[in-house]
Amino acid sequence: MAVIMVMSPKEIPLGNDLAIKVMSVEDFSPSEADTQQVDMTAFLEKQVQLDSLAKVREAQLAAQEDSINRLKLAGATDGKEMTTRKERTETIGDVKYTIQYPDSGAYYALDNFFASLQSLSEKPNLIRVVHYGDSQVEGDRITDYLRNRMQTRFGGCGVGIVPLLEKQAFRNTISSDEAGNWQKIAVYGDNKGKPNQFYGLLASMYRFAPALNKDSLSDKVYKSWVKYKETGYLSKTDLNNKIENIKILYNSPKNELTTSITIDRAGKNENDTTFKYKLPQQDQRGVVGLFEQVIETRFKKVNMSFEAEAGTEFYGVAFDCHTGVAVDNVALRGSAGVEFTKMNKDFVRQHLKKMNVKLLILQFGVNVVPSPVSNYSFYEKLVIKQLRFFKSIDPDLAILVVGVSDMAHKSGTGYVSYANIPKIRDAQRNAAFATGCAFWDLYEAMGGAGAMKSWVSSRPPLAGKDYTHFNSRGATVVGEMLYEALMKSYEEYKERNKVIFP
Predict the structure, then answer these.
(1) Which of 70-74, 175-179, 237-241, 381-385 has the highest mean pLDDT?
(2) What predicted TM-score, i.e. pTM, was given to this entire model?
(3) Could you say which of 138, 143, 340, 416 would form a disulfide bridge with 33 (CB–CB 3.0 to 4.6 Å)?
(4) Please, what sign has the CA dihedral across residues 181, 182, 188, 194?
(5) Concatenated DSSP letters for 346-396?
(6) Which one, of 255, 258, 248, 249, lies nearest residue 311 by Cα?
(7) Judging by beta carbons within 10 Å of its beta carbon (0-12, 13-18, 19+), is residue 322 exposed, middle or buried?
(8) In order of start, what are the domains of the chain with their CATH numbers?
(9) Measuring CA to CA, how many Å separate 83 from each of 44, 257, 298?
């Protein structure tokens, strides 16, 4: 066998795309793929700790419900109440990979968000976090855990804003079904529309009636429906199917929009509740309508039916509490995160204001990795352009850029991390710092080079066999690391400002 390995060629071609690989001496020597290993002990221990933490949070949430002080708002209608409670105290231990800030000392990049968090204990309000990402966050992965942790500490409930048409991914938190005449128009992907169109916070618009044009001036009424339901994967610590307020973001320029909402409550002795309304007409396109239906319950299903004329557009449905923190998951499959500038700036401004968005989290990069180049200055400039776009809309908006995660590809008989990932990570960090934004290094937090291979091969595994995406366990670990990093910075903010806020 030794003679054969020495004398034989490494490959015997059988055609244009086919060859027989012959074992060589090098195959018996340790390769780069073999030596790229990360110690998984800490990550696996954290996963076990999170299982135990879930039981603790169950008790905390029960106590939280008992301690809520409900305050009737002056002039509130439909029984709308605001809730306030003291922020639940937590001990944040050592955080190895913390939030990074520009060298200029702009540690205040997230201070406006932290100030909003701190004010919740005294001033009942709902603040919003929008978590944008590529397929790494698809299915509400990572976001779900971050949401649950923040709502446990600061209050809040519900899954936030969800689309009216979602066929690409299954969410663990909420599932949806819709009539076949729904259409999605987005800033990216196969459904891509034109630049500067009126896309909402989900970077998309949805409609079942035709667009306004010279042939759609009749008074024809179109009908459709969408249904949301809990997935059955909820634990007792989850707040995803608890709501106090359902919101519909829309534009109906020709006439009023008729909607009927039926709530199938989760309680054993609860009856279905149906609401029917005519939503106000907007005078023109590019104006965001916001409808709110107050109902405090846990739901099994929410059925919505609509009647509208041509030109009616939807931008999402939100399942929220009146107070606390709402965290939206916006997964843009296949995106590099450089399409936001195609959105209409004034329209995005309306959404940010109406939904009280205080923090954007941008987590992209896995779609940039598979096509290596020697220099990523072009990508850095594109990311800077996106961040400046949001900052120009709202200079006070806090933005956290999450760096690209590790990925691995086949190398010989094993898997090895892509060599260009540190360059992409550096481009993202440079862009964040150049625009006064914060940065969190997920690549280093998960172990650096060789991390994804180790996350896949660990027992139990924390990532999938595609060597790109975290599985549910891995997403939970990432969500906890991100939460800890945010809360570490939050505690440092409170320490800096304790003279102002004793």
Answers:
(1) 381-385
(2) 0.89
(3) 416
(4) positive
(5) HHHHHHHHHTTEEEEEEE--TTTTTS--S--HHHHHHHHHHHHHHHHH-TT
(6) 255
(7) buried
(8) 1-30 (no CATH), 40-65+100-156+323-502 (3.40.50.1110), 157-322 (2.60.120.1360)
(9) 37, 30, 17
Name the least confident of 102-116, 130-144, 330-344: 102-116
For the record, the structure tokens of 301 come out as 């299903």
Q: Look up residue 181 and give its two tokens.
A: 């005449």
DSSP one-letter string for 217-258: -S---EEEEEEEE--S---TT--TTEEEEEEEEEE-SSSPEE
Give the tens place of pLDDT for each residue, 183-242: 999 998 888 888 999 999 999 999 999 988 766 657 889 999 999 998 876 555 568 889
What pLDDT, in 10s, does the model give residues 160-189? 999 999 876 678 889 999 999 999 999 988
- The structure tokens 């987590």 sit at 363
Per the prediction, the chain carries an average pLDDT of: 86
Tokens of 446: 């998960």
